[in-house]
Design brief:
The complex is a heterodimer of chains A (about 675) and B (about 400). Chain A is built from 21 helices and 19 strands. By secondary structure, chain A is α/β, with parallel strands linked by helices. The termini of chain A are far apart. Chain B starts with a helix and ends with a helix. The chains are: A alpha/beta (about 675), B mainly alpha (about 400).
Chain lengths: ~675, ~400
């Protein structure tokens, strides 16, 4: 119905068209009567032909014809010629309807239905398509139908690739052709068809798209195809394990009792529950992590049937981060002992990305857990202060090295051609200094280069990337927020790119037994990234940034103290990911914008029974329904946390009513807004 | 090669139109549209302040009376040129009545009753609405009919809906078909889930496998295509995202690449295009920013709270280029007006006006609205595109019914 020209009529034309409309109405009512009385005579079917030739949108008539065809086919014995005649007539009607309106969903679908019967010749389909695709090169119905015919006729993808060559050759602005090229090449590369190896083909494709881009840099088609190529160069489809905690070869010390972020060593962990988290971080969201796809070999008792949980929203079974909790304190005395833990991933298939790709190869890592019998002295009842007393961390770099070693290096098999292709593109795009899209592409290329090159040169790239995004923020203010976000990502990649960079942000907190704190404050970050390199962090200072939410922090399973003060958080919903942090005891969200405006995000969801009446069933919800309804977003987050200290001052929501609500929802709270609570 | 507005304008003056044949077809089309659009903008910018103040009362004014005349006339009598829409009559009801509701108006009892009766005759014996009386039930016309009845509101309208039907359209592959033996695509999924959600009949059986299907339609560009293998398209991106939002599986989509796609769909004219490297079209005023606002409004916990589109300039495109002074809206300059574009241009204007509103109860600021405050339109529900308070009343009704 959309996109068809509709002319304004002159009086004499108006009369003619009124007559035409009257005729159509008569046709329509006659057709309806045939349809409802199931009359499939030749006369009746011809009438539907007439109707469809005038109005291809009459989908009821297409269905009527399907029923009529089924009816006819059921009456004749399998005479191939007769079947063909019947079906060819359908193809003819579709063709004439399409020349009336080639955007008719019903007509295209009818043609697919006829061909799926398998009795008509498909040889003419491509010719017909060529005709239509010349008239409208971007018609997505035609392109969809083309893919359907190619699959049905088993036409080779190489031949189709040549067709896109021709289409692009005659009009490089035709993004549909570029798109189909990406679909075909993805398939050819995936099944390694002869000669279709990424290291051979992708560089050729870069040359092809350069032509389009440099002929007219304002033409979007080439840019989007370039984005796909970059994707192919950098990303591997199969999911990979990027990091874990504990990491391979590390030696961790486990204590009984609470860890209030109060451990002087990075490799020390304690929990009153007697469990420690085993965290797996993948490069993309995967499902199917379970005790059958991940096996643990250890003498630590009570870990036979581990439960793996995705760090994601409710109802979701996929995530980049998966966690299992291992028991290290059992009834048997095991203190003062060292245990080796061997983790094998992907021995049996089942770990699959959300795009349907299997986890590449099985992978194994080992770490040592030293279980101590003493409770490390901790200041768990004292208040945690973020204001002063931070000393530069006297880098025991070896300690840190073990933590940030990535397990990925062995997975990148043939990075040479990738590096070369990207280096060539970078040289080329440095020549396009004034275009916004040129700057953006250059920044992305540099980011890609940093990802696959040696540590030593990374810093340089990141500085250039950050400059480019700063330029873009100034040049293209309507997309400021978008550039700001990618700038934050680049900045965090830079910070975590090497031990030296990272240790510049590590501090010792004097007031807290010299425990180690990662301080990423005052960096004007608007989003969080690179969490996979920060899995070890227990105390994190993100204050004085521009964060709108904590998305991503859910992966930092060891976090026990978190400072988010002076950011731009507008509601408790934005803290949703913190629900996954079982160790979190200290949370500072003071001086944000919580409660400034009550954006009721459930207003879109309450119509769905999936979300109905969740809180009416639990204790607190029953006892104080009014407060829970008023502060539902805070309720959903706080009831899942085990906080001892919360700072909320400097938000509109803060006040006596909210405080009394917090006390009910978080009964173990000891400090609220800097004051000790009387228990 | 013409890159900037200044170059473009000077090339028009120099009469370089002869150069056009050497450009590709879509470049030539793009050039011609830009030419029209920028001429309108520069006429407007060039007029002196006094004229601008004067024209504020005409050029930048939505002209409610004329809009209402156009819409009311359409409801009472449709010209013969609409015969090709015979299979889409509930849509015409929706486009017109929703536009009227956006303007903050209602229709009289007689028209309301006629509409309810007419839609009743389009409803099939087993539920679902066809394009007209006697026609096969179709998800698209069912969506239009349900949204029309929600817009009309009241027990009579709402209780006339038979809530069966959707289950029959569910395909074992997870998606939905638009009608018996009909095609399956992302559009069909959205239509079904939007209806189910408003009518309060969304359940596990309807949502099973649906997220997987939608996911298989997201392309590397970041947007969502109509079916697996298709290129990304604004309408389908809206449908796919809204579906995922309604079934609470939105975090399964690649939201980063989706955002990247969206920010590149607002053309230099400040209108929105529907697909990569296509012409701008007024109706995408609704689809594209909507996708963004859904990302923003629904998922506070996603990190972006500020809309990333240029909302005032978008209003400028719609009002100066899509609005027809006699009432109604069109795709772009040079095209005729129609109800479809009127509906989605007005919906888009409303979205742009409310983009910066702090919450649903706070009206937009004067500075968020292009033109005088008389241009202020009612707030729409971003996932169903019905006026918010009519949506709320319908939800109340169907929860009572449950």
């Amino acid at each position: 119905m959309h996109g068809r020209p509709r002319k304004a009529y002159k009086p004499e034309e108006e009369a003619a068209s009124a007559a035409k409309a009257a005729k159509l109405r008569a046709l329509q009512s006659q057709f309806m009567s045939n349809h409802h009385n199931k009359i499939y005579t030749k006369e009746a079917v011809d009438l539907s032909t007439k109707l469809l030739e005038i109005n291809p949108e009459a989908y009821t008539a297409w269905n009527y014809r399907k029923l009529a065809v089924e009816d006819k086919l059921s009456r004749i014995e399998s005479d191939p010629d007769l079947i063909k005649t019947i079906l060819d007539e359908e193809l003819r009607v579709v063709e004439s309807a399409l020349s009336q309106n080639f955007k008719s969903y019903g007509a295209w679908h009818h043609r697919k239905w006829v061909l799926s019967k398998g009795h008509s010749s498909v040889g003419n389909e491509l010719q017909l398509l060529n005709k239509f695709q010349k008239l409208d090169t971007r018609n997505f119905h035609a392109w969809n139908y083309r893919r359907f015919v190619v699959e049905l006729t088993k036409r080779s993808e190489q031949d189709e690739l040549k067709y896109t060559d021709d289409m692009i050759g005659s009009d490089f602005s035709n993004y549909s052709a570029w798109h189909n090229r990406s679909v075909l090449l993805s398939s050819l590369l995936a099944r390694k068809a002869d000669g279709f190896l990424p290291n051979k083909k992708i560089p050729d494709e870069y040359k092809l798209v350069q032509n389009a881009i440099f002929t007219d840099e304002d033409d979007q088609s080439g840019w989007f195809y370039h984005l796909w190529l970059l994707d192919q160069t950098v990303n591997v489809e199969t999911p990979l394990l990027t990091s874990s905690w504990p990491s391979h070869g590390s030696r961790i010390s486990l204590y009984a009792g609470c860890s209030n972020g109060s451990f002087s060593k990075l490799t020390t962990f304690g929990s009153e529950s007697g469990y420690f988290p085993l965290v797996l971080n993948f490069d993309q969201a995967v499902g199917g992590v379970s005790s059958s796809t991940v096996t643990i070999d250890t003498e630590l008792k009570g870990n036979e049937d581990l439960v793996w949980e995705p760090v994601s929203k409710k109802n979701s079974h996929v995530s980049c981060v998966w966690v299992a909790r291992l028991k290290y304190i059992s009834s048997e005395p095991c203190f003062g002992k060292e245990y080796k833990v061997k983790v094998k991933i992907g021995n049996s298939p089942g770990i699959v990305s959300s795009r349907g790709c299997n986890f590449s190869a099985s992978y194994e890592f080992v770490f040592t857990a030293h279980v101590h019998d003493t409770v490390e002295e901790s200041s768990q009842e004292g208040i945690v202060s973020w204001t002063d007393g931070f000393d530069i961390w006297d880098a025991e770099s070896k300690d840190l090295n073990a933590l940030t070693t990535l397990d990925r290096s062995n997975a990148q098999m043939d990075s040479k051609w990738r590096q070369e292709a990207i280096a060539e593109e970078i040289d080329l795009f440095r020549e396009l200094p004034d275009s916004k899209i040129g700057k953006l592409t250059l920044a992305r290329l540099l980011m890609a280069k940093a990802m696959i090159s040696d540590d030593a040169v990374k810093g340089v790239h990141y500085n250039e990337i950050l400059e480019l995004y700063k330029d873009l923020m100034a040049l293209d203010s309507s997309h400021y927020q978008y550039y700001k976000d990618v700038h934050s990502v680049a900045l965090l990649r830079k910070v975590t790119s090497s031990t030296e960079d990272l240790s510049g942000h590590l501090f010792r907190c004097r007031n807290m037994n010299n425990s180690v704190c990662l301080r990423l404050n005052n960096l004007s970050l608007s989003r969080i990234a690179s969490v996979e390199k920060l899995l070890f962090v227990q105390m994190l200072d993100l204050s004085h940034n521009e964060l709108h939410s904590t998305e991503g922090l859910g992966g930092m399973q060891l976090l026990s103290c978190l400072n988010l003060s002076h950011n731009r958080i507008r509601s408790f919903s934005a803290l949703d990911s913190l629900r996954h942090l079982k160790q979190l005891r200290v949370l500072d969200v003071s001086h944000n914008h919580i409660g400034e405006h009550s954006v009721d995000t459930t207003r879109y969801l309450c119509s769905s029974p999936l979300f109905n009446s969740e809180w009416t069933q639990d204790e607190v919800g029953r006892q104080m329904p009014t407060l829970v309804t008023k502060y539902w977003d805070a309720y959903f987050v706080l009831r899942d946390l085990n906080l001892k200290q919360l700072d909320i001052t400097g938000n509109v929501i803060a006040g006596d009513v909210f405080s009394s609500f917090v006390l009910r929802v978080v009964p173990k709270l000891v400090w609220l807004d800097g004051k000790k609570l009387e228990i | 090669v013409i890159r900037t507005r200044a170059q473009l304008e000077s090339s028009v003056e120099d009469g370089v139109m002869e150069e056009l044949p050497s450009m590709t077809v879509s470049q030539r089309d793009q050039f011609l549209v830009l030419n029209d659009v920028f001429r309108i903008y520069s006429d407007f910018d060039a007029s002196d302040i006094a004229t601008q103040i004067f024209t504020c009362c005409s050029r930048v004014e939505i002209q409610r009376d004329k809009q209402l005349d156009y819409l009311m006339n359409g409801l009472r009598h449709l010209g013969p040129s609409f015969s090709s829409l015979d299979a889409n009559r509930p849509w015409i009801c929706y486009w017109i009545l929703h536009s009227i509701a956006l303007l903050g108006e209602s229709v009289d009892d007689e028209l309301e009753n006629n509409t309810i009766d007419f839609l009743g005759r389009c409803q099939g014996p087993d539920g679902g609405y066809g394009g007209g009386p006697g026609q096969l039930a179709h998800l698209a016309t069912s969506y239009a009919a349900v949204n029309t009845l929600v817009t009309l509101g009241g027990d009579k309208a709402l209780s006339s809906i038979n809530r069966c039907f959707l289950r029959r359209m569910k395909d074992p592959d997870g998606g939905f078909r638009v009608h018996d033996m009909g095609e399956m695509d992302v559009r069909a999924c959205y239509l079904a889930i939007s209806i189910a959600s408003i009518l309060n009949i969304l359940d596990d059986e309807l949502t099973r496998g649906l997220g997987d299907y939608i996911l298989s339609c997201q392309t590397y560009e970041g947007g969502i295509g109509g079916e697996p293998g298709s290129e990304a398209h604004a309408g389908n991106t809206y449908c796919g995202l809204a579906t995922m939002a309604l079934i609470t599986e939105v975090d399964r989509l690649n939201l980063d690449s989706l955002m990247n796609w969206i920010v590149h769909q607002q053309g230099v004219e400040r209108g929105f295009q529907g697909r990569t490297n296509k012409l701008v079209d007024g109706c995408y005023t609704f689809w594209q920013p909507l996708v963004q606002l859904n990302l923003v409004a629904l998922f506070e916990d996603c990190r972006r709270v500020q809309p990333v589109f240029d909302s005032l300039n978008l209003q400028r495109y719609v009002i100066l280029c899509s609005m027809v002074p006699e009432g109604g809206f069109r795709d772009k300059p040079g095209k005729p007006r129609d109800f479809y574009h009127t509906c989605y241009c007005l919906s888009g204007l409303s979205v742009a006006q409310h983009a910066w509103s702090k919450d649903k109860d706070t009206p937009p600021l004067n500075s968020d609205i292009l033109g005088s405050y008389a241009n202020h339109l009612e707030h729409v529900h971003l996932l169903h595109n019905v006026v918010m308070d009519r949506y709320n009343k319908a939800i109340e009704f169907f929860h009572r019914e449950a």
